[in-house]
Amino acid sequence: MAFGLRWIRSPWWDGFWLLSGLPIGLVIMLTCPGKVFALACAIMILDTAHIVSPLLLAWSQPQLRAIVRREWGAHLLFPAIIVLLCLKLDMATILGLGFAWNVYHYGAQNFGVASLYGAGRDRALRALICVGGTALIFGLVPQFWPSIFGFNHYPGTLSPALGILLWSSFAFNHWLTDIALSSRVAKWHWPFIAIVLALGAVWLGLSSRGLLSDQTVQVLVRLRAAVGFIHFVYSARIWKLSDPQVRETIGEELFA
User: Fold this and answer.
1) Which of 140, 156, 177, 186 stands 20 to 30 A from 236 (CA)?
2) Would residue 140 count as lying in a domain?
């Protein structure tokens, strides 16, 4: 199986789904003032859609479903424990753990995509650049520049511009990549995308103010956080290209 193919599908498909982070970041940076509501809606829908993508893929693709069913402790029991913990822990702890795990998760996806493209012969160096670089940008840079990813309190504006560019480029590219690759491996591309986007829209509706009581929304936020942690677990397993079974499954479907 050739993981060193220049394009996974085509220049246009790859360009839109996998390599569009920087253009999206530039557009958001230049047009964000006055469009915060629309941006917030896009963030909530796409973020949720990407979170449910590895779960839907794992349970809809026969070979991957066999893996998660066989490893039931990690993919059924552990998620149940995660849900219970998210309902009990204070939100500060949940957000802290989520941020740290998410930084690694972003870096791991960057490493995985670079591996699919066959970028570089040195696997260790590729991992260091992808995972270490992501940790540097999101973990260390804010320590020296605390406001770089901060939203200010003026309606319709975000600050600073560099933070918008960096965050948007990484986040939107990450979400689109997860959705697109999962849909390809699932072999029902557009229906898969439609389902996960619909689930994202449902979450947007449920989290809207006034629809549900504040207490119910707080519980839903905790459950949403739990699903986020569970998606880390599933994503790490079903995209573990060092596993021959996963590599064979991913390769057959992704490059078909």
Assistant:
1) 140
2) yes
Is there a domain that residue 19 lies in?
no
Q: What is the distance between the alpha carbons of residues 242 and 253, in angstroms, rounded to a whole number?
A: 17
- Residue of 175, 187, 146, 142 whose CA lies nearest to 44: 175
Instruction: Return the ∠ at Cα 11 (arms to 9 and 12), rounded to 5°.
Output: 90
Question: To which residue do tokens 């549900």 refer?
Answer: 212
Which amino acid, 72? W
Whole domain around residue 199: which residue ranges? 36-254
Contact 59, 238 (CB under 8 A): no
Structure tokens at 54: 């590895």
Q: Which residue has the higher pLDDT, 76 or 255?
A: 76
In a domain, 219, yes or no: yes
Check the CA dihedral 177-181-182-187 and report its sign: positive
Residue 113 lies in a domain: yes
Sign of CA dihedral 247, 228, 174, 12: positive
Q: Looking at the chain, list the stretches that DSSP marks H as alpha helix, in order from N- to C-terminal side.
A: 11-17, 21-31, 36-60, 62-70, 72, 78-88, 91-116, 123-127, 133-135, 141-144, 161-186, 189-206, 214-238, 244-254
* Residue 256 pLDDT exceeds 70: no
What total of structural domains would you count in the chain?
1
pLDDT tens profile 41-91: 899 999 999 999 999 999 999 999 999 999 999 999 999 999 999 999 999
Q: Terminus-to-terminus CA distance in the chain, angstroms?
A: 11
